[in-house]
Amino acid sequence: MATVSPRKNREGQLIGWQVRVRKRGYPAQVRTFDRKTEADAWAAVIESEMVRGVHVDRSKADRRTFRDAIESYIANVAPGHKGGQAEILRLQRIIRDEPKLVAYSLANLTTKVIEAYRDRRLGQVAAGTVKRELGLLHTVVESVRKSHGMVENPVSDVRRPTVRDARDMRLRPGEEDKLLKACRASRNPWLEPAVILAVETAMRRGELLALRWEDVDFDQLHVYLPDSKTGKSRTVPLSPRAYELLWRLGADLPPDHGRVLDTTAEGIKQAFERARAKAGMEHFNFHDLRHEATSRLFERGWGIMEVAHVTGHQDIQMLKRYTNLRAFDLARKLEQ
C-alpha cells in the first residue's frame, strides 16, 4: 500500500523521501520527509490506521500553517473572549517575532518545535509570561485540531515552566505620592484617576476601563460591575477618596455618557510604564495596586468574606496571595 521514493533536485542530489499511501476507501496520503527512516515510520502509522479503520485525513493540516490557525483565531475566536484584546496582542507578537515557528504546517508542528520556542522565550521573559503564552498556543491549536484531522495537540505534552510569581509588592512610604506626581505629568489624563481608583477599590484594570457612568451610584456610594473577570457581577463600595474623584470627573455628565475612563488598556499600560520609570518604581506593576488595595482592607480590620465581596475573589487561597499585611500594623493590634 505504501511506496517510498527518493526525491532529487535537478543536479541529481537527494533532497528527501516522498511517501504515498493508497488504500481503497481512503484518499491517497502523500508526505515528504528529510530521512527515509522518518518516511518509513510515517507510512507504517498511516497504514496501521487505515487497516484498523481509525485513519483521519490530515491533508488539511498539511496545507495550513500555524500562522493560518493563529490568524483564524484572532479573527473568529479571540473577539468573543473577555481577555480577547490581550490574546490578540500576544498572538500578533508571535506572528511578528517568530516567523519560522508560524511557518510550520499544522501537521509538522511537533512538541519538539514548541519546546524550542519555550526555551527561547525563557531567555527573554519571565516564566509566568511563557506559561501564559503556551496556554494560549494550546488553545489556538485546539480550536482547529479536530477539523484539521490532528489526533493530538502538540502543545499538550510541552512541560510548562515552574512559576514562582506570587508577588508581595506593597507601596513603600512616599511611593504613592511619587507615583501620582508622575501620573499627573503623563500625557494620558486618565492615568492618575485610574491609579487612584485602583488603589481605592481593588478593581482590575479591565474592570476600571469597562466601568460606565450609568453603573456609578453616588447615592448608594458604590459602583456596579455587571460583568467582571470571573463572569459574575459585583458591587464595589466607594471610599471617600474614590467618591470625591468620581464626583469631580462626572457629576455634571448624564448617566448615559459612556465609560468613566475614556482610554484603552494599551494606553494605560504604556502611560503607567513611563510614569513608574519617572518615579523610580520600575519594580511596581499596575496590578500591584490591586494587591495594595486588598491588603489595606485587611489592615483596616475587614473580614475575609467582606474583602472577597469587594475584590471578587472566589478562591480564598488566591485571595491570600494578594494579602501582605505589614508586620508593624499587626504589632499595633497586639497592643490593643
Give the SSE layout.
Blueprint: E1 2-8, E2 14-21, E3 29-33, H1 36-52, H2 59-63, H3 66-76, H4 84-97, H5 99-103, H6 111-122, H7 127-145, H8 175-184, H9 191-201, H10 205-210, E4 216-217, E5 222-225, E6 234-237, H11 240-250, H12 265-278, H13 288-299, H14 304-311, H15 316-321, H16 327-334
Antiparallel strand pairs: 1-2, 2-3, 4-5, 5-6
Number of helices: 16
Q: Roughly how much helix do the residues carry, as a percent range?
A: 40-55%
Structural class: mainly alpha
CATH superfamily of the largest domain, called what? Intergrase catalytic core
- Tell me which CATH architecture of the largest domain applies here: Orthogonal Bundle
Rounded average pLDDT: 86
Structure description:
By secondary structure, the protein is mostly helical. It folds into 3 domains: about 1-55; about 65-150, DNA polymerase, domain 1; about 175-335, hpI Integrase, Chain A. Helices cover about 50% and strands about 10% of the residues. The chain is built from 16 helices and 6 strands. Strands 1-2-3 form a 3-stranded antiparallel beta sheet, covered by helices on one side. The longest helix has 19 residues, at about 125-145. The chain is elongated, with a radius of gyration of 27 Å. The model has no long low-confidence stretch (mean pLDDT about 85).
